[in-house]
């Protein structure tokens, strides 16, 4: 069976997970191996997602599972993104109840984050729709690699997204298991109905070229110049623990270039 969850469209087989490690054919059905398996749950500032222009100053209940459909060598969460790890099974009802209980602490909703959330769309669907009915906000923090038709099914109850745009070069995207056209299409789709912010992590030697940032910002502006861009500093992580952090001056310079095309540009990790 060909998986329809993300752009990889893996040919699933009985007993053998697909590229993300979380989808498998079982008794003829494409099942989610990480449904409701939570590796992290925390009440975070909304700015940590990062979302700078969506209910600033508020908090949001943030959860993550395990698995990912990309292979970024600098991943800060590779302990949960690269495979199955210790988790706690939680139901959508439990999460919604917890989110409602935390309203007195400034909580506005639920953020699906930490690992790639859209490889478990069933759990997000089962949580986000009733959460929306309960008056909670739903936020996705995603690499944007979901199949657009699958993302469209969730967007009616998604209030905000932060979508990674890791590079504007297709060949570079392919190197890390991604697809530029897919992420740009998902930014476009999401911006039609939800608040969208974009994050570009500036990695030395990968995407720190000034011309590339100029093109990246112009491309976002063609979708909507009101989209916020976060230009974020890389710190050693994942397989790149021996790489030097991005120079601060590089981050500020690239942000300055992005402001020639976009009205809302923030720097991060500086």
* Helix/strand class: alpha/beta
Mean pLDDT: 96
Helix content: 25-40%
**In CATH, what is the homologous superfamily?**
Aldolase class I
Under the CATH scheme, which architecture would be assigned? Alpha-Beta Barrel
State the CATH topology.
Answer: TIM Barrel
User: What sequence of helices (H) and strands (E) makes up the elements?
Assistant: EEEEEHEHEHEHEHHEHEHE
Strand order of the largest sheet: 4-5-7-8-9-10-11-12
Q: Tell me the β content.
A: 15-25%
Treating each run of at least 4 consecutive H or I residues as one helix, how many helices? 8
Name of the top-level CATH class: Alpha Beta
The rough form would be described as globular
Radius of gyration: 18 Å
Please characterize this protein's 3D structure.
- The protein has helices spanning 78-81, 92-101, 121-133, 148-154, 170-175, 180-191, 210-223, 248-258, and strands spanning 23-26, 29-32, 37-38, 40-45, 59-64, 88-89, 107-112, 137-142, 160-164, 195-202, 228-233, 265-268.
- Helix 7 links the parallel strand 10 and strand 11 (228-233).
- The model has no long low-confidence stretch (mean pLDDT 96).
- The strands form three sheets. An eight-stranded mixed β-sheet has the order 4-5-7-8-9-10-11-12. The chain has a two-stranded antiparallel ribbon with strand order 1-2.
- The protein has 270 residues and is of the alpha/beta class.
- The termini are far apart.
- The protein is globular.
- The protein has eight helices and twelve strands.
- It has one domain: Aldolase class I (TIM Barrel, Alpha-Beta Barrel), CATH 3.20.20.70.
């Amino acid at each position: 069976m060909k998986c329809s969850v993300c752009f990889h469209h893996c040919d699933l087989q009985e007993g053998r997970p697909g590229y993300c490690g979380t989808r498998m054919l079982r008794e003829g059905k494409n099942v989610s191996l990480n449904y409701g398996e939570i590796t992290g749950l925390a009440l975070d500032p909304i700015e940590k997602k990062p979302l700078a222009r969506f209910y600033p100053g508020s908090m949001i209940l943030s959860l993550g599972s395990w698995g990912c459909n990309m292979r970024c060598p600098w991943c800060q969460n590779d302990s949960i993104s690269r495979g199955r790890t210790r988790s706690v099974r939680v139901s959508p009802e439990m999460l919604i109840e917890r989110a409602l209980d935390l309203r007195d602490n400034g909580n506005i909703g639920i953020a699906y984050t930490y690992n790639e959330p859209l490889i478990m769309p069933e759990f997000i669907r089962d949580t986000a729709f009733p959460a929306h009915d309960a008056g909670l906000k739903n936020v996705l923090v995603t690499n944007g690699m979901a199949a657009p038709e699958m993302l469209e099914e969730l967007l009616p109850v998604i209030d905000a997204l932060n979508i990674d745009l890791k590079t504007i070069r297709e060949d570079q995207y392919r190197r890390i298991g991604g697809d530029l056209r897919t992420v740009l299409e998902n930014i476009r789709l999401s911006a039609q109905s939800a608040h969208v912010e974009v994050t570009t992590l500036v990695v030395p030697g990968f995407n720190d070229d000034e011309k590339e940032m100029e093109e990246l910002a112009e491309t976002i502006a063609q979708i909507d110049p009101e989209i916020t861009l976060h230009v974020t500093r890389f710190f050693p992580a994942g397989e790149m623990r021996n790489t030097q952090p991005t120079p601060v001056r590089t981050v500020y310079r690239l942000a300055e270039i992005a402001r020639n095309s976009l009205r809302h540009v923030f720097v991060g990790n500086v």
